[in-house]
Amino acid sequence: MTELGEGLTKVYNRFHDPSETDECVTKWRELRRRMDEVVAAAYDWNDLIPDHDFRRVDFLPSGDNIRFTIGKIPYEYPAPVGFLESLAMTATTAFP
């Protein structure tokens, strides 16, 4: 944020904008990818590889619902769940 000279909202809007190619923003996206991979490894989810991309998310209003995020990963836990759902289940059991 300091390097870009912008506030948090503007920086996050750039982070989630598919047309944004500024080196600081693309580096931040890569760091996000790496962080998610490290979290997956920390939980021993070595067979889960977060699939980062720009995606339309249903929980945000139309016109402002594109986010750089991970998609659902088909995996048997015993039922197919996505990466975020797996993380939420783990957090819920670890911190009741």
Tell me what you see in this structure.
The chain has about 100 residues and is an alpha+beta fold. The chain is about 40% helix and about 10% strand. It contains three helices and two strands. The chain has helices at about 10-15, 25-40, 85-95; strands at about 50-55, 65-70. Strands 1-2 form a two-stranded antiparallel ribbon. It is globular, with a radius of gyration of 15 Å. The termini are far apart.
Comma- or semicolon-separated keywords:
single chain, 96 residues, alpha+beta, two-stranded antiparallel sheet, globular
Tell me the distance between the termini: 34 Å
Alpha carbon gyration radius: 15 Å
Task: Please trace the helix and strand order, writing H or E for each element.
Answer: HHEEH
In spatial order, strands of the major sheet run: 1-2
Major β-sheet, in short?
Answer: 2 strands, antiparallel
Tally of DSSP helical segments: 3
| Average of per-residue pLDDT values | 78
Unreliable stretches, pLDDT < 50, 5 or more residues? none
The dominant shape is globular
Give the amount of beta strand, in percent. 5-15%
Structural class: alpha+beta
The helix content, as a percent range, equals 40-55%
Work out the number of β strands.
Answer: 2
TL;DR of this structure?
This protein is an alpha+beta fold.
Chain-wise SSE layout:
Blueprint: H1 8-15, H2 23-42, E1 52-56, E2 66-70, H3 83-94
Antiparallel strand pairs: 1-2
